[in-house]
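Query structure, 178 tokens:
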């Protein structure tokens, strides 16, 4: 009998600790996901995103927070942190802040201001023309047989598109403003 009472007390104690030591999960109707300033990627458009995540989120599209009575002017992001312009991330890659990382392994421009656009760039490189015996007068080079320069020399055919970019996907990008 004592062992049954002891077993019952242990089970009761374990149940009590389990029930009172964990925070309950938010209710399904609680849509207050995210913290002020959080950024979320989503495949959901604005209406569906608001339905799933609640109000207080806007797409990062370069909005100026300078009007009166607008959602942004009344936002906690503006009132408490005086953020006056949201970054426009439409169609650009987001790059993490360098935080004093070596420019050779991180951002070559070093520590830049948060939300500032960095223009596109092709890494410095060069192309060379192979020569025969230090000369290019074999008929296929840039000089003719008398050593005169040829005109309209194309080193390579044009290739590629309108930009240099890695493989990517497009997503909506939201920021929590309230």
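Result returned for the query:
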């Amino acid at each position: 009998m004592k062992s049954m009472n002891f077993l019952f007390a242990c089970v009761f104690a374990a149940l009590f600790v389990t029930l009172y030591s964990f925070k309950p999960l938010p209710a399904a109707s609680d849509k207050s996901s995210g913290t002020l300033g959080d950024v979320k990627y989503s495949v959901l458009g604005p209406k569906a995103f608001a339905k799933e995540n609640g109000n207080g989120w806007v797409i990062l599209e370069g909005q100026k927070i300078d009007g009166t009575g607008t959602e942004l002017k009344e936002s906690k992001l503006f009132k408490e942190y005086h953020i006056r312009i949201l970054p426009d991330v439409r169609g650009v890659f987001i790059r993490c802040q360098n935080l004093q990382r070596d420019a050779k392994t991180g951002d070559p421009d070093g520590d830049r201001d948060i939300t500032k656009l960095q223009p596109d760039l092709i890494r410095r490189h060069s192309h060379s023309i192979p020569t025969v015996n230090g000369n290019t007068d074999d008929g296929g080079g840039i000089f003719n047989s008398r050593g005169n320069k040829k005109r309209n020399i194309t080193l390579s055919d044009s290739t590629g598109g309108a930009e240099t970019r890695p493989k990517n996907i497009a997503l909506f990008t939201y920021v929590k403003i309230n």
